[in-house]
Structure formats: C-alpha cells, structure tokens
Amino acid sequence: MNFSLFYETERTPDYYDATRLVKNWFNTLFSGDEFVMTNFKVSGNSQQRTVHRRTRMKIKQQSQSYVCKAIIKATSLETQEQQSFKIKQLLNAAYEEGLLSLYVKSEDVTVKPIALMDCPASFSQTAYKGNYSWPLTNPAAKAEVSCSKNPLQSATRSCAIDIELEQAIWKKPSLTECKLLKELPNNILDLQDVIITDENAEDVVQHILYLLPDAKLDMEEIEIIADKTSDIARTADISGTLAEAILNVFNYILLQEIENQSIRKMTNSILKTIEEIGYKMTYTERNASIVTTSLALAVMRPDPSVFEGLAFGVTSYERGLNLKINIQENPFKKALASVFLPKSLKKFLGIEYSDPEKQSKIQFNFFGTTSLFVDDSLKRKKLNTYVVSASIENASIQNLSEPVNITLQHIDQNTGNRAVHCVFWDFLKNNGLGGWNTSGCEMEYTDMNYTICFCKHLTHFGVLLDLSRTEIDTTNDYILTLVSYAGCGASSLFLGITLVTYLALEKLRRDNPSKILLNLCAAMLMVNLVFLVNSWLSSFNKPGLCITVAALLHYFLLAAFTWMCLESVHMYLALVKVFNVYIPKYILKFCIAGWGIPAIVISIVLIINKDFYGNGSLSKNNPFSSFCWIQENTVFYISVVAYFFLMFLMNTVMFITVLLQIHSMKSKTQNRSRFWKQGFLRDLKSAFSLMFLLGLTWGFVFFAWGAVRIFFLYLFSIFNTLQGFFIFVFHCLMKEDVLKQSRIQFCWGRLRPNNYSDWSASGATVRSTPRHLDHILPPRNLKYLNSNGTSSTSNCSDFLPGISLDRNFRIAEVHFNPRPVTPADDEAKHPCSRRILSMDTELHYPQKARVFH
Length: 853
Description:
The protein is α+β, with helices and mostly antiparallel strands. The chain has 18 helices and 29 strands.
C-alpha cells in the first residue's frame, strides 16, 4: 500500500518515524484473533514533499509519501475474497499519533493472498556446541530443541517469512544458551588455537573478559586478543550483546594505560575492529549505542532524503566514570568532545536507494584514554585531548566542500598559549603502525580550554600540543605564505628566461661558469615549481604521490645547495688556485657531484623509511596548510639543516677569500683614483651578485630567533624566493656580453649592431695581440698551464705598443677557457697572452707581465 505521512513538527520525520507510526497502527488494527500481522517493511516512495490542507482544523501540513508491504496471517474461515475486502476496509483510514498522522486512500491499497509452505525439518551440525535436529515448523513460528551440553536450556530457530520472496525460510540457529562441548583454555595464550565461528564467538569474548584481570597484557597476549576480536568482527552477524562484550574487552585494555610497543603495534587493528563491529551490529531503531566506562560507540542510519546535518557529542566524562553521549541534529554548544557532520555528506548516504537497508550508516566513536594513540615520531608534541571519530559506511570521505566541525576540550589547560595542531589518525604512517597527521585539518579557534578544528575528511580526530616550538601569528603567517608563493612564481619565470637565454645563445654557454650557472638555474627552477604545486598535489591525499612530491622537493633543494657550493669552488680555483690546476672532464665531474650527492642522500632516506616523507603542514591556520615534506624532525635536521650549514659555511669562506683576493690584486696594481666612489659602488654590486649566486641569503634563517624572528623570516622569504629574479638581473640584464649577444641574435634594424666580431665567451682567454700582429711577433718559448676548470696563460714580458692592458674584471662569473684547448694548440695560437678574470663589476688596473721559463 501507499500512504502519506503528515507532520507539523519542526524536524522533518524520516523513515524510522514512519515505521514506528505504521507499526503502532497495525497493532491497533490487527489486535484480534481474526488477523495477525507477522512482519512489514516501509520504504520511501517519493522525495517530493506536498502541502495538504486539513479543512476542519484549517492547518497546512507538510507530507511525505511511503510504500508499505505487510504480511498478514488470516485465521478466520471466510473466503479469500471476503478476507481481502475486510483488510482493505481496515486500511482505508487515517491514523493520528501526536503531531504525526498518516492517511491511506482505498485505491492505494492492494491485497492478494499468498500460500506459504512450512519450514521443512532440518539438521544443524556445529563444531563447538553439538548437533541439532529441527522439526517441521509453521511460518512465523519458532522451533526449540534442548542444548547438547546443558539439556535444561534450549536452542531456538525461527521460521521467518521473507517479505520479498513471499515464502517461509529458516533463520540461523540461536545457540546462545547452549554451552561449549569443550571448555576454553584458562589462559589467553592458549586461545591462539581456537577457531572463531558464529556459535562460539560470544563464548570466546566472555572468556577473555573473565581472564583479563589475571593477564599480563604483554605484546603476545594483546596480539592474540586483537586477532580473536578481529576474527569475531568478521563473522556473519553481531548482536548488540556480542558487540558490547567486545567493547568491554577493549575498554579494560585502554584503562591500563599501556604506552609501549605492546599496544603500539595493535592500534590500527583495534580501531578497524571497533569500526567493523559498529557497522555489523544488528539493531532495529534509528540508532544504537554502546557505552562503557571509557569507550563509546554510536551508530545510526539516517534518512538521506531529510538529512540536514548530524552531531555527536560527549556531554559528560571523568576518566573511567560517568561517560554520557548524545546525538542531535544541531551542533553542540557545550560538550567535552563533539563532531558535527555537514549537510553535504547527504550524497554519501545512499540517497539514490529507496530501500533503507541499502543506505549507509554513520558511526561515531569516543576514546576516553590516549594510550591507544601513541605516535613514536612525535618527540616534542603530546596529545592533549581525548579522541573522537566519525565515519560513513562503505565511503571514503575526502575534500569536503563543507568542513567537519570538531570541538575538543583540552585534558590539560593550555596556560602557556602554546601552539596546538588539529590532527587525524593516519593508518599508513610509521610503516603501517599509524600516526598523527595534519593534512586536511585546520585550527579554527583555540583558547585555554577548547580547540575547534575544521577538517575536510572523516576519521579519528585529536589535538596535539606543541611542547617546544611556537607558531607565527595568523596575520604574519598568511603574509609570509603569500610572499613565498608570489616570490617563487616570479623566480620561476625569471629562471626560465635565464635558462632560455643561455640555451638559445650558443656562445654564452661555451665556458664552464655558464654551464655551472645553467645547472644551478635548473635546480632552483625545479625547487620553485615543485613548491608551487606541492599543496595542490597534497590535496589528492594519495600517500604514494605525497611521498614522491616530498622526495622531489628534498632532492632539488639539496641539488640547488650543492650547485651553489660548486659555484664557490669554481671561483676559488679560478681566482686563488689559478696555476698548476688541471682537472680533466671538469664539468662532467661537477655534474656528478651536483646531481649525484643529493640523489645519494634521498636514496638513503627512502631506504631507511619512506614514511619520513609525507603530508605535513607548513601552517595550520591558513588555506595553504596541506604540504608534502619531511615528517621526521631528526631526518630534517640532518639531511637539510646540516647539509645547508656545511654548504653555507663553505660558501661564506669562499666568498670572503674571493673578495680578499680581488682586493689584494686591485691594491697591488691600481693606485687610488679620484673616482673611488664609483669603484666602491661597483664593488658593492659585485658583492651582492656573489651573495645571491652562492646562496648566502639563506643564512638569514640562522638569525630568526627571539625578538627579531619575524623580521628575519621576512628577509628570508623575500630574498630567497626572489633569488631567481636577482640571478636574472645580475647575469642577464646587467651583463654586457648577454645584452650584446641578445641584440645580435634577436634584434633587427638600428637595434642590431652593425659591426661585431665572432668572439668567444665573455672574458675567455683573451688575446694580448691584435689579429693583424699575429704574423709579425715572433713566438716565445713559454711554458703553458691549462685546466678545463681554470686557464692560465703566460704574458709577454713587454707590453705591445698601442695595446692597453686594462681589462674588465667581472665577479659574478669567472670565465676563462670557453672551450677545451690543448697546451700545444694554445701555445701555437697565442704566443703572447695573459690571464683575464671575468667579473660582474669593472675593476680597471694594469696587468703585470709574467714570463715562465
């Protein structure tokens, strides 16, 4: 039959309201001996709501439509037509109960007779409780036989009527009252050999409860308990009694506050068992709950058509005492712990199904102790709240448009205003042992007593208290994040332009410094690009993808540090160790070091534990919180901080050495000039150029402490995210050779130089004699020293007439030998040449001629 349910309540009634109303109505109609209602089933008929006016009371009522199918057993001797007509007449009526009422039209009722066969005689064989013979039984009746071990008690089996198949079928035997044929062992370790079945599941759990007070609860015993309860959770049916017994077992273990590897390895297994038990537990009402002294479970199957949100709250709790929970439609204003699920979760509840049995359940859990949630990777944080969880049956909930609202009261007051972090239990962390993760959770509000978290997924939630480090305030944190993303975007653009410029102009990349610069720019470009897409890729919540992104970011960051260090090494070899330095395959060895050393470091980290990488958080208070990076502090300090410190120390020493060498050469060869201010500015520009090239601005992080922390964090973010931009300025815009070659290759008309020669790279082994004098000057018997990394050539003992020996010293790069030249070739081609150093500023001074015999 079809019927309409009318209501005047603020809350829209659901399937369970309709079922209860129909049940009470049927009990009223079929209370005599003539008809007996055996079972019925209600399902939704339409999602549309209508408005019906009751003329007598002049009240508008909203209504919903449902379909009901019922099996009614007729005991009268009347004909089937008469019985059908009488049932139809009874159902053609209205029924009112409080603010709810239902109405059935005669045309919406269909009555048809069905013939049911008795349940045939049957035999059941069990391994632990004996064998049972069931007699021929009438539909909707129950058969009873004596238990094998304790005959005074009975085993029962129902002959039920399947309302869909319209036939009588046997239900599973109920052997709860029957004892086991063989007693269970008297210690937990011996339970390992007991095979769990439907008939002995409850006996095993009750026996475990009996043995727990005398148990040692070491690793082996806890593992057996976890395994047996997990096996029970996989049985076909779990009654409310059995579910309560299992939760009492876990409750006892949690109250022991075991904080060692005994419980650590079983955490994930226990959490999954509790969740599976909640979903398989049988109940008939809208919701069911089990509350122990420190553990609570609540499960319900809401009607998706009227779902407007759902809240679970713990309203009272003292450790091991007075645990009270509640479920309501609106968020809790005051609760020890609460979870509010938004309306947007409706699509995960099976709204497309009209049969409530096919719709998904929602489960909530509360854990009144923290001993189950130990994370070995957290050295300086502690769990400062109890744990609540929420899940939806057969659904993985991620990236919600409306966040889940979690409110948690602190166990210890946060009187020191220390940083708090909203976290969820990640089952994959710590090699599958589980651990706390911040991905997808943001702290919305916190004070001394409470923290409110917004999360975009469902799982077990808690709040971590940072015992050592403090966070930046929200405003500065947000600004620094925007500066970082804007700076990285700008650097990526200008690093790309620098790479394209040097790759497009073949003459610019002939010399070794340019090749080193290209590798440095490539590494820095990849660091910026991976950083920019990190949060987006992290939002997919794929552990493998997140580990890959974190490892790539780590690799390219170390590669950038390494190439900065190689820049300083190259300058040292060029400016300080000029002579007697010959390194075969110079750039190849630099590339092996620049890209190989970081690869070794990353490989070692991945081999030790790939979960060192994961989904962490740069900041918990802004939209850019999700970030794939190194999770383990020790790994971070060793593989990033220590690595950078060594690089920074070496580059600083090289930087000072190079500046002193240039100053020494300048003081010996150049007298004081009246243009000293101009020279000073050129030197200052050179120093700044070297600082960015060698990554010395990364050293600002070492000063970000105490009162000046925010100031140096701003300096660090601005200068380092714009490092690529400054490299472009100093090595493209302000470099004469790059500008000249760009005009030659890319410009036309008046912008293109009319007369230019086919030169090598900037500052490369420059000839001391003009080409037209090559055939005039006699060759000199000179020794020649050459290196692929640095090139030194002998100078003529006398200056040539009309040839100025002043040259430009440019210190952003050290360009010497643009192409490999053998000593013999160069001696033949350049009998009179001298050493030229390429710098970023012009330091004019006459060269001293040297002759090597």
